[in-house]
Amino acid sequence: MTAMDVANVVYAGSARSLRALLVVALVGVAGVGLGSVARAQLLVDVMVTAAISAQFDSSVSLPHGSMRAVGDGVGALVARLPDASAWTEWEAYVLSGVTVGLAPGVVHEISTAYAVAGYFETERSERAVAGPAGPETHTRIVFVGDDGSSRLLYVIRADREVVWLTAKAR
């Protein structure tokens, strides 16, 4: 998957706030010491977690801000997914470049946020797919709430990009 797969993606947030976040990250990384990669990773995880809030359910925290994707490319991604018509209110988020390494942590944070909000994982599947720009790994996780409502987290991992989509059942 390439950036072209998410054509017309517009990242919400401004370059100014992104620069400020980068400065804070660099200062924090410098403060934890050169030999402490684990602490630097923790700092980045905390910063990503701090940037999380919900769009479709205020009790569930999902990554947004400079990572949220909008535009025609999101519709194209959703159209590639199996049983996409069973879900609604799609939201897409993108990590690219060196931040791709944060994807497992982000998925864990989202799963934890769902659990805190009363949605528990009931189904998880993973499969390898031949994407438009090479091999991709698709992970599908379904969460069910106390009230019986369902939420979907769909993660597409490629070489240098990760896209995750969220939706709720129709």
What would you note in describing this structure?
The structure is a single chain. The two termini are 28 Å apart. Strands 1-2-6-5-4-3 form a 6-stranded antiparallel β-sheet, sandwiched between helices. Helix 1 runs antiparallel to helix 2 (37-50). The model is unreliable at 1-35 and 50-56 (pLDDT under 50). It is of the alpha+beta class and 170 residues long. The chain contains 4 helices and 6 strands. The chain has helices at residues 15-32, 37-50, 72-79, 103-116; strands at 68-69, 87-96, 119-131, 134-145, 150-157, 161-169.
Question: What characteristics describe this protein?
Answer:
alpha+beta, disordered N terminus, single chain, 170 residues, six-stranded antiparallel sheet
What is the radius of gyration computed over CA atoms, rounded to a whole number of angstroms? Answer: 16 Å
Strand line-up of the largest beta sheet: 1-2-6-5-4-3
- Helicity level: 25-40%
Strand fraction equals 25-35%
> What overall geometry do the principal axes of the alpha carbons give?
globular
Number of strands: 6
Helical/strand content category:
alpha+beta
Largest β-sheet summary:
6 strands, antiparallel
Distance between the termini: 28 Å
Taken in chain order, the helices and strands follow as HHEHEHEEEE
* Low-pLDDT residue intervals, each spanning 5 or more residues: 1-35, 50-56
> What does the average pLDDT come to?
73
In short:
The protein is of the alpha+beta class.
Outline the fold blueprint.
Elements: H1 15-32, H2 37-50, E1 68-69, H3 72-79, E2 87-96, H4 103-116, E3 119-131, E4 134-145, E5 150-157, E6 161-169
Antiparallel strand pairs: 1-2, 2-6, 3-4, 4-5, 5-6
